[in-house]
Amino acid sequence: METEITLYSVALPPDHNRQGQTDLKFGEACKDARSVGKETCEALYYHKQGGVCVKGRAMVFQKGAQASFGTYINGFAADTWRKYARLGPVCLRLTVLGRFRLRLMRMDLQGVHVRRQVLLQKELSGADGTREYTFPAQKASGGILYFQLQALDAGSSMEAAAYVTKLPSRMVRLVKLAAGICTYRREDFLKKNLQLLTDQLAQPDSMLFGHMEIFVADNGHTLKQMQRQFPSIHLFENPNLGGAAGFTRCMMEVWRICQRQKDAAFTHLLLMDDDVQLEWSSIEKTYALLRLLKPQYQDAFVAGAMLRADRLYLQEECGGIFGKYGNQPLQQGLDLRTARDCLKNAAAGYADYGAWWYCCFPVRLIRQFHFPLPLFIHGDDVEWGLRCKKPVIRMNGICVWHEPLEGKACASRVYYNLRNLLVCQALYGTRGAGVRMAALLWKQFFHDVFLYQYQSCRAGLAGVTDFLKGPSFFMQTDAAKLHQHLSAMQRPLRKLSRLRMEMVREIPWEEVHAAASYCPGYLERALKTLLCNGCFFPGKRTRFVPDGHISFAAAWRSRRLVCINEKQQRYEVRVCDRRQFLQLFCQTACTAARLITGFDRAAKAYRFGVQDLQTWEFWENYLGIDQEQSGETAP
């Protein structure tokens, strides 16, 4: 007996009436998105010629207008699906009103050029109702499959479209998803995501109806009222011990339910950040893929890409590689409006891990590999992915939109990035990691002191020192108090209106934007490093730069930096301090020497002692969970 499986529905962007409300993707939380333009958002969903507009769930055409769905979100990545999933013939299920010319298409890369091929052409009438059109199997074995519609009458509309396949029932797996979200006082973002998820899950015709539940770890203890609005979610308060603790709490609660309700157990856990913008078709694709996975990939992770919130079409990361000097994002900088970059992205190769802004894996892995390390933020997802060593599946259209990572530089993040990277290198790094990490410490030193971020430099040195204390540091340290101390090291930003009153009448935005895009060559960076970026040269210049990750070369010979956060309309003034430079230089030299000589000893301690940080008992005590709830539920 065959079963028809909906792989995913064709998604449409927000229509014009909702555009002002959602501001493309992020509403008030990402005002920069408004400068991108409506067409940029549309280009991820469809390309149009002529008069085409979205009204509700339908797409309405003027006569002669055309829409092509060979895009990042709606194109069918045949190579990826056929590599990981068991598929029958792939069909397009289409419902239209009016008259259209339909073309089933295929595109692939021939060198650097995009080749397009028409597989089937047919005229449609709304009187036909919902029909299915099969992509010819011999011609549709690879590349990206998609369809084009051209209206033959004015007012014709596409009401619904989806990619489907048929398989014997025995080849389709039973899948039940648990979505785990960790949040800390981001009620606006969380409310929008919960509204999207609960609305979709409540629809009887949804493929996930009855097959997905939502778990929320409330690290900020602010969501009791939200429980009344969303009574179907599992909400539990959690101490503010970072994203690692929040995601671990979701894993524990899901595992507990699986042990108590074996007949209705969850098969997979989908971890997501609270401050992302979701596309529902991403979850549809994930669910369908999990149902059809080939046996050799049934333990695989499904990782979602991160697209930027300020430039909605630009990919920041699609999986990552754990390299000798740190984590390397894959497929970064692709413009997903273009067919060429969509095809490049669809051909993505090996990845070591998927970040937990969107990452799905089998619940049974918890029994085998236990829980993440208590790294607070940054690196918990990397370490757990490296520990599990499972295939990481990435697919076009499985994604979230997130605030760009380079705008998040602060003292606490420098601490966690360095400390947690050292832990991962100790557990999974190769020979000579101590020397490489010392070189990375020096690189961080020069970046921080040349941009007058002296507190960030101190935080990085503290991260190295705490790493060298071994795994016992994590057991003996109050992580909440440590985070408060690190947060206090960062000077608060001031309102931009005060800058206009106290320093300048008009902010030189051209200078700020030029500093953001400034990318010096290797020789220039090397020369300015040797000359201490002009810190000891005479000069009185004040430079205006963005608050975030920029090249230190942009601050050459400046005595003062005015760092502007354009999004928050705030600023910070940093002043060159030669005494602090020399003090931190000596401290960095001593810390780097201790890192080189003590890394192997610390790495051995982590390899033999880290298991104590992964157990149910450790996390139960760490999170202060009532021990009466544990017992036989521990994996």
- Report on the biggest sheet: 7 strands, mixed
Radius of gyration: 26 Å
Distance between the termini: 37 Å
Percent strand: 15-25%
The averaged pLDDT comes out at: 90
Read across the widest sheet, the strand sequence of neighbours is 15-14-13-16-23-18-24
Provide the fold topology:
Blueprint: E1 2-9, H1 16-22, H2 38-42, E2 47-49, E3 52-55, E4 58-61, E5 66-68, E6 76-77, H3 78-84, E7 91-97, E8 99-110, E9 113-125, E10 130-134, E11 144-151, E12 157-168, E13 177-183, H4 187-201, E14 212-218, H5 224-229, E15 234-237, H6 242-260, E16 268-273, E17 277-278, H7 280-292, E18 301-303, E19 305-308, E20 315-317, E21 320-323, E22 326-329, H8 339-346, E23 358-362, H9 365-369, H10 380-388, E24 392-393, E25 399-402, H11 411-428, H12 433-450, H13 454-467, H14 472-476, H15 479-488, E26 494-495, H16 496-502, H17 509-517, H18 522-530, E27 541-546, E28 558-565, E29 570-575, H19 578-609, H20 616-623
Parallel strand pairs: 13-14, 13-16, 14-15, 18-24, 19-25, 27-28
Antiparallel strand pairs: 1-12, 2-5, 3-4, 4-12, 5-11, 6-11, 7-10, 7-12, 8-9, 8-11, 16-23, 17-25, 18-23, 19-20, 21-22, 26-29, 28-29
Helix pairs in contact: 11-13, 11-19, 12-13, 12-19, 13-19
Task: Summarize the structure in words.
This protein has 635 residues and is of the alpha+beta class. Helix content is 35%, strand content 25%. It is built from 20 helices and 29 strands. It has a seven-stranded mixed β-sheet with strand order 15-14-13-16-23-18-24, with helices on both faces. Strands 1, 3, 4, 7, 10 and 12 form a six-stranded antiparallel β-sheet that branches. The protein is globular, with a radius of gyration of 26 Å.
